[in-house]
Amino acid sequence: MSGHKTRLDRYISQQTTLSKSQVRMLVAQRKIWVDDQIAQSVQQTVDEFCEVRVEGQILAKKTPDYWMLYKPVGVLSATQDAKHPVAVDCLRALSVVQRQDLHLVGRLDLHSSGLLLLTNDGRWSQAMIAPHNKMPKVYQVVVQNPLTEQMVQGFNEGVFLTYEQVTTRPAKLKILAPNLAEVTLWEGRFHQIKRMFKRLGNRVMALHRVQIGPVKLDASLLPGQSRRLTPPEVQALSQVNTATNKENFSD
Fold first, then answer.
1. Residue 234: its pLDDT value, please?
2. 109 given a catalytic annotation
3. CA distance 230 to 160
4. DSSP 8-class letter at 198
5. 10 CB burial (10 A radius; 0-12, 13-18, 19+)
6. Contact 140/173 with Cβ under 8 angstroms?
7. Which of the residues 125, 150, 225, 227 could staple to 105 if both were Cys, CB 3.0 to 4.6 A apart?
8. In the chain, how many domains are there?
9. 202 and 155 belong to one structural domain
């Protein structure tokens, strides 16, 4: 995963012909800058997305890349697989090399569809999926049997999952039609929505993710299509407070 940090002297010596001792001397002479700040120590850490200037020359810098994909049913949330088509292969606007540099931010089941995020920025994706980050995710769910107020209450209270021997965090279930629900989760356990409905006596027939945090799946995208996230979308996702909860998440 991208975003690995390394010491400044090691990073520069790997990118140039300078030795670590020469880097140390240039730092002492205030001739090395990191992200428009004079480097203070060879021990400070940088990564591939930092702008490092050595005597005025900018070293190679990778540009962060952020994508949304409308994952179709039957496409695996993975970067490679011998049996199924994988999500990164849907990004046909990118070269094979560029696709290989991306990784998924979370996942969707093989038989689920909808919004999937991809990036080459490991720091960003790690923050997005961190357990303490209660990033809300919204799904449209088709179920086999008619929905009931008891199911709404069950989701709101949390559902006990026997395999983990835990009760899920409270979730929001909104009835849109007799067999169609909108579900908002603040956590992501394995097959969570399917298992919650099963525990409450129903069965999921189709599951489609429409929103992650403040970002909605672009309505102009068809299954298998993708586009880059806009700068405001990236910023909005980055600024979602880790204390986000269902009281301050707007419908």
1. 94
2. yes
3. 39
4. H
5. middle
6. no
7. 125
8. 2
9. yes
> pTM score, two decimals?
0.79
| DSSP line for 85-111 | -BGGGG-TTS-HHHHHT-EEES---TT
Handedness of CA 219, 87, 46, 129 (dihedral sign): positive
Angle between helix 192-199 and helix 149-157 axes, rounded to 10 deg: 120
Looking at 65, 109, 218, 251, which residue is catalytic? 109
For residue 216, being part of any structural domain is answered with yes
Could you report the per-residue pLDDT of 144-156, keeping only the tens digit for each? 999 999 999 999 9
Burial of 182 (0-12, 13-18, 19+ CB in 10 A): middle
* Residue where the block lists tokens 């290989």: 100
pLDDT tens by residue, 235-250: 999 887 434 434 444 4
Mention every residue, 6+ apart, whose C-beta is less than 8 A from residue 82: none
Give the model confidence (pLDDT) of 68-101 as tens digits. 999 999 999 998 899 999 999 999 888 887 888 8
Q: Is 195 domain-assigned?
A: yes
- pLDDT-based confidence at residue 14 (cuts at 50, 70, 90): confident
Residue 40 to residues 11, 43, 59: CA-CA distances in angstroms? Answer: 15, 9, 18
* Sheet strands (E) in the chain: 6-7, 32-34, 37-38, 45-46, 52-54, 57-58, 66-71, 103-105, 113-119, 137-143, 160-161, 166-167, 172-177, 180-185, 204-212, 215-216, 226-228
Locus of tokens 């670590």: 20
Helix orientation angle between 231-238 and 122-129, rounded to the nearest 10 degrees? 50
The answer to whether residue 250 sits within a structural domain is no
How many whole angstroms from its chain centre is CA 108?
11
